[in-house]
Recover the amino acids of this structure.
């Protein structure tokens, strides 16, 4: 409707101001047309710049992370420009063939958070929607409903995950193909797990076999993540 108002008021101003000048009330109608035209253009500009007639709605999606590498828990990112901006490449299912990536856009931000829980990514999306039916009638023709205002990614990973860039990921793939590097990595991991298991049993000698197995798996994954970080330094 807003575009229609601009067109009709502009046409009316032209007709009453330049064509139908012989009519007694042409100045009145030309003045009213000009006021409507200026008001319509102003409202249109305010909608375009400040999203007049719209409100912000926020949706939050939390999904589990799956490693992009079947051999270890890896979260990979690509550095852009000076390196301050990063695009994260990730999966949300181990059976997922194609990876996902964060938005490469000024409207998107990413951050990395250390946690003790399961690895996940929290995606918050803010969108502009029409505030009411009148706003939709006025601006619906512009097709800007559900326009994204901002999207944030919060990657929450625990100590069993290694976070590396794409260059390091390529380097890791080459390193793991070398028998010597594999043997060294296994030795380091086994040593750390043995040491931490001894400490855990010393603190709690009554750990059940199931608890010991769970701890051993946790220590092994954490040691693997540390070994990967050291390997690609």
């Amino acid at each position: 409707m807003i575009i229609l108002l601009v067109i009709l008021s502009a046409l009316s101003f032209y007709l009453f101001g330049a064509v139908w000048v012989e009519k007694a009330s042409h100045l009145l109608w030309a003045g009213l047309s000009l006021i409507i035209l200026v008001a319509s253009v102003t409202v249109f500009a305010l909608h375009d710049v400040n999203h007049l007639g719209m409100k912000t709605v926020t949706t939050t999606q939390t999904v589990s992370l799956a490693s992009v590498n079947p051999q270890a828990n890896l979260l990979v990112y690509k550095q852009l420009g000076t390196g301050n901006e990063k695009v994260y490449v990730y999966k949300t299912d181990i059976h997922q063939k194609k990876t996902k990536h964060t938005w490469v856009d000024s409207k998107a931000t990413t951050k990395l958070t250390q946690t003790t829980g399961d690895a996940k990514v929290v995606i918050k999306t803010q969108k502009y929607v029409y505030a009411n039916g009148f706003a939709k009638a006025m601006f619906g023709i512009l097709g800007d409903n559900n326009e994204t205002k901002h999207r944030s990614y919060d990657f929450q990973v625990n100590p069993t995950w290694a976070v590396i860039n794409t260059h390091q990921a390529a380097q890791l793939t080459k390193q793991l193909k070398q028998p010597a590097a594999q043997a060294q990595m296994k030795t380091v991991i086994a040593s750390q797990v043995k040491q931490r298991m001894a400490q855990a049993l010393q603190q709690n000698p009554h750990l059940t076999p199931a608890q010991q197995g769970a701890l051993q798996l946790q220590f092994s994954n954490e040691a693997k993540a540390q070994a990967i970080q050291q390997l690609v330094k």
The two ends are 60 Å apart (CA to CA). The chain has six helices and eight strands. Strands lie at 54-64, 74-80, 85-90, 100-101, 108-114, 120-130, 147-157, 162-165. The chain has a mean pLDDT of 89.
